[in-house]
């Protein structure tokens, strides 16, 4: 690839200032928040419009040059690492909230808008956007990963929130995948195909997202258990009873300890469930009463309500900062998080199996997760200079994934495939994987879109 | 195509008794419930397993013979009409409920199971399957159409309910598109691609579906208005207030009149909204109170609760029998239903426009719809022997569709494309339509799967 000519042509096509080969900028775009090995892109470009992205794509085709869309680099599976160099397409300058359609409960945003930026803008309208992965990711990145988070048990994942995408395809064509109607049976559902495609099918240049009315009443609760088994079985029964919890998170005692140290909190160092309920006050009180009853049946010792806004926020801040608490506590080590998701009936068995495997591995870590969805993470703090420890970590992840897939679960509930889950795609999807490849080949015949990811 | 050899080979491949060229059976498989012109298949085959479907598909490839999956023929857009002859693949014998996974709120069914059959089986578990198009369609057909119905405003469409599909592809390969975990970010979302693909990408041989706990408490309400405008604006405000209604249906005065005549009921012949609320009793009471307040602001004269189970059922039976009421009243004419869906902010304008167009056309009919989703149907009773009237009906539909698409809506909210909406695909999807075609071509290069539909 003649990088020099490519860069010259890029500079002629859009502002030269927005085409960078500065060392610091290249280095910033070589990595994400994962343990995967960084690799430099050849050039970083900062487009401002879909038309510019289209022009860049056509140049990339001409040079058969990889294109890697980049949000803020908060991926946990190496999605944005330019493993074969090429153009890192940074969407920082496309961060405008274009339209807030209150009546339709829809917003139109550019891909570089972050979820907290959007929620800040929505506040005044009494609306909010529910999907909350830990990081303050960009909405384009979240859609590309098929992200989810703590509120998914009630509001769903990005798949449920994206109404329409404007996508620049590998050949530079700009398409819309959907419309603004609440439902449609017209043509193939391209929106869902692109969500979770991790930049391998096209680059998103505009997203229409569903938003929700702020709930009339919110209550959080903390439930402390003697054993992880009790906590997991309790949450399974709460789901089974059809109680519409808005959040249902497990934090094990190891994680609680790290969190307390880092956040100067004094939560009991016991397996804990964190709940949140959204609704009208009287309906919610009945839900909470029923939940408490179920938890009692599973030896819950403490069930503490947090109606106060500040206390509730503290609770969820702790949950969201959990990864940082681990990183802070184990300086010099890198975080690796497993991400399996299993049918809820298999959750207790899967977590039991994971805990045994974690303790046996001797690697420092803990278990936490969105147990209301059957999704949990084993956080592992690894010394990336220690080849034997890396091998042990990978073996542990492999065991967890194989266990989950054998129970009709998935290797990744929310972090995506990226580099880390490629090896499990055939096992998980079987013959379907070949047809994913065929679709990839027909939409990106020269394989310029985020090569080396998923496949 | 050498039909005789094909039929011989089919008979050798599966029981000869399940390969039929009987005139009555061919005729039954030539049509659906729509106004579209019937056409005979060459042969009807009744498979019992995915493996048999795979063998049939391989034979179809050999003979380049069309394959048209057939449920119970309740389509409203000609989906199952073998416009180019071929094999009508009837799933009547694949009607087993394979597994009810209570804890996971999932069921595994064969494609020929109908929605009432499933709900009958679920009753004993305190569970139900929410999607309810008017007809007692098969679940395979509903998934293929991307069907929805009156409860979609709360529970979503088939797209939200299908967890996994077993699909026999055009080359005979059997794949699974998903798993049983509540969420996954692993690989491309093929499940959503196949839902609504109308038999053009593969044949479903097994479905894993989400089911829901029967609500603790259910209340229905009937709200009578002086004008359609008031009724529509009221429902828009109810949605905007975030009240989680389970059903929100509009029936206009023309439709109410036909319904009363047919069902021997005496509902007021006025624009009416039918609501249903699901939840715990105290939460629901608060929702109903707030709804009534909003409706009052829109000059609602009568707001009648129906808590009684029998009365509630009567109300929804009336709603579901509406099409039959029209067919019964206008004997000799055929029903044609438009199916646009618009963003909720555009609903009042769209219905106002549709009513004007309906009255101007002079064709007997009425308006009803799932207005909570912005989806409504103009029911038109047409004399299919009158070419001028058919032309007038098609023109009316075209005007409605163009209006909807110009407001970022869709030509079909739930009936699918089939034969009737093909002409609007380019207008609605723009350049994206070319890429749908590319995906079709790569999965079905010889175009044997339900040819003549969508494209």
TrEMBL record, chains A, B:
Ranges of residues in domain FAD-binding PCMH-type: 37-214
Entry keyword RNA-binding: no
Keyword annotations from UniProtKB, A to Z: FAD, Flavoprotein, Oxidoreductase, Transit peptide
InterPro entries assigned to the protein according to its UniProt record, in alphabetical order: FAD-bd_oxidored_4_C, FAD-bd_PCMH, FAD-bd_PCMH-like_sf, FAD-bd_PCMH_sub2, FAD-linked_Oxase-like_C, Oxid_FAD_bind_N, Vanillyl_alc_oxidase_C-sub2
Named cofactor requirement(s): FAD
Pfam families named in the record: FAD-oxidase_C, FAD_binding_4
EC numbers for this chain: 1.1.2.4
Enzyme class (EC, first level): oxidoreductase
Top-level taxon of the source organism: Bacteria
PANTHER family linked: D-LACTATE DEHYDROGENASE, D-LACTATE DEHYDROGENASE, MITOCHONDRIAL-RELATED
Family membership: Belongs to the FAD-binding oxidoreductase/transferase type 4 family.
Protein name per the record: D-lactate dehydrogenase (cytochrome)
